[in-house]
Amino acid sequence: MLFRRPSPVRFFPLAAACTLLSMPLASSAGASQEVVIDAMRFAPQTIEARVGDEIVWNNRDFFPHTIVADHGEFASEPIAPGGAWRLHAEHRGVFPYTCGLHPTMHGVLVVN
């Protein structure tokens, strides 16, 4: 497996605000990149990150979604509406991914 797969994180608005306020803005391990899931699409559709960065998929849609790399490098559990899933980029490459529950939803993670 090329990536560590943390367990899914589910947020409620107040808990999310408290968590975000208690987190450092940056760390020596890398930056944080965000992908928003909304209206049955990933935004941005292509996300660029560096090795060591954390990529966070935030589900703002009304439906659960999953993040599944097309070639098996990573896969999330279902992300509930209002929930998030985090991935730490450990290897360079181009990783196309799909929502396993909605196969018309596609994105690309580029790790430099």
General description of the model:
The structure is a single chain. By secondary structure, the chain is mainly beta. The protein has a single domain, classed as Immunoglobulin-like (Sandwich), CATH 2.60.40. Helices cover 9% and strands 38% of the residues. It is built from one helix and nine strands. The strands form two sheets. Strands 1-7-5-2-3 form a five-stranded mixed beta sheet, with no helix packed on it. Strand 2 and strand 3 form a beta hairpin. The protein is globular and about 30 Å long. The two termini are 18 Å apart. About 17% of the residues have low confidence.
Concise synopsis of the structure shown:
The chain has one helix spanning 13-22; strands at 9-10, 32-38, 41-43, 46-49, 54-59, 68-69, 83-88, 93-98, 106-111.
Any chance you could write out the topology, listing elements then pairs?
Blueprint: E1 9-10, H1 13-22, E2 32-38, E3 41-43, E4 46-49, E5 54-59, E6 68-69, E7 83-88, E8 93-98, E9 106-111
Parallel strand pairs: 2-5, 4-9
Antiparallel strand pairs: 1-7, 2-3, 5-7, 6-8, 8-9
Signal peptide: 1-31
Subcellular location: Periplasm
Pfam families: Cupredoxin_1
- Termini separation comes to 18 Å
Q: How many domains make up the 3D coordinates?
A: 1
For the largest beta-sheet, the strand count, sense and barrel status come to: 5 strands, mixed
Order of helices and strands: EHEEEEEEEE
